[in-house]
From TrEMBL:
Keywords: Signal, Transport. Residues 1-27 form the signal peptide. GO terms for cellular component: outer membrane-bounded periplasmic space. One of its GO terms (biological process) is iron coordination entity transport. It is found in: Cell envelope. Residues 73-337 form the Fe/B12 periplasmic-binding domain. This is ABC transporter substrate-binding protein.
């Protein structure tokens, strides 16, 4: 079972800060979560429409955000923000998430051009942010409440809390309204739904839809499962048979759930995606950490070498439509092997 520290955080303050910076833990949904995924959507039928510009929006969690003018300078303290801005054809004035920007599906080598906000995740340097004179700072509910009062005197703070892939689409739409980028939003939204439609079609045509994948994340041999109530699990459930129930035990991660290795063995996944949080070159990925576990080695997917280490940036931290499109592509490509 997963230990009693938050998702992707191992004991030790220094390591915990590094982990939070990488993962950007989301707010606790509060107790056992209902299944957040709806019936499988017909993504091929989706026609994205551009949102109208608005200086006041209400986000998927019911938070109202009001500005005096469309923001020209936005600081991102959560990777969802970086994802959204790039989808809208913008760049952050500064970021706490250089890893996501450095991904080849984002800015790649140009990520170095975006200043990095000093300070650990959830404890970013307020003075450094203030000096940038941003019009809007986008952070994460459950992590940045402590910064909001100090920053709120000079700028507007928007604390996001995406708990499903549908939420991520709605956050894109809300940000597009604020920035007046409806045309770019509609294009990005359509690209995401097209990627989902392609994944669904490929899975149906090639017999992949009946596969039962598992997303497992952790560090130091401790782990949890992304249930179908999580963002990634719910998305994969639109393509595959992602039959891992949400137990509401994910701590800071909506849809994260405790499963024992014995329960994973009994669940019999066809393939396993691993999100390994490592903090130094000497740290081993989860596939190596589990190598001597006798129960792990009895899982058929392990015996058939259908265990894949995936890129943390889009899979674990991105949460936005660009990241989720990458996840879909990765998942289908790996399932076809």
């Amino acid at each position: 079972m997963f230990l009693s520290f938050p998702r992707r955080v191992r004991p030790g303050a220094v390591v915990a800060a590094a982990l939070l910076l990488s993962a950007g833990c989301a707010a606790d949904p509060g107790g056992p979560a209902e299944e957040r995924t709806e019936a499988v959507v017909d993504a091929a039928a989706h026609q994205a429409t551009a949102v109208e510009p608005a200086l006041t929006v209400t986000d998927p969690r019911g938070t109202e955000v009001s500005l005096d003018a469309p923001p020209e300078s936005v600081v991102c303290l959560v990777a969802l923000c970086d994802d959204i801005l790039l989808e809208l054809g913008l760049r952050p004035a500064a970021t706490s998430n250089p890893q996501i920007l450095a991904h080849e599906g984002f800015l790649g080598e140009e990520a170095d051009e975006v200043p990095v906000v000093p300070g650990g995740f959830g404890n970013e340097d307020v003075e450094a942010i203030t000096r940038l004179e941003p019009d809007l700072v986008i952070g994460l509910a459950g992590s940045h409440e402590g910064l909001a009062p100090a920053l709120g005197t000079s700028t507007t703070v928007w604390l996001t809390d995406s708990r499903s892939w549908q939420d991520s689409v709605d956050y894109l739409r809300a940000a597009a309204a604020l920035t007046g980028r409806g045309e770019q939003q509609a294009a990005a939204e359509q690209r995401f739904y097209d990627a989902l439609a392609d994944a669904q079609a490929t899975a149906a045509e090639e017999g992949l839809a009946e596969l039962k994948p598992l997303v497992l994340y952790g560090s130091d041999g401790s782990f949890q499962v992304d249930s179908r109530g999580s963002i990634v699990g719910g998305l994969l459930d639109q393509v595959f048979d992602y039959d891992w129930a949400d137990r509401g035990t994910g701590g800071h991660q909506a849809g994260g759930s405790d499963y024992s290795m014995e329960e994973i063995l009994a669940g019999d996944p066809d393939l396993i995606f691993l999100e390994s949080f490592t903090f130094s070159p000497d740290d081993a990925p989860l596939s190596e950490q589990f190598a001597d576990d006798p129960v792990w080695n009895r899982i058929e997917a392990v015996r058939e070498d259908r265990v894949y280490e995936v890129d943390l940036a889009p899979w674990a931290t991105g949460r936005g439509t660009r990241s989720l499109g990458i996840v879909l592509g990765d998942a289908v490509d790996l399932a076809r092997r």
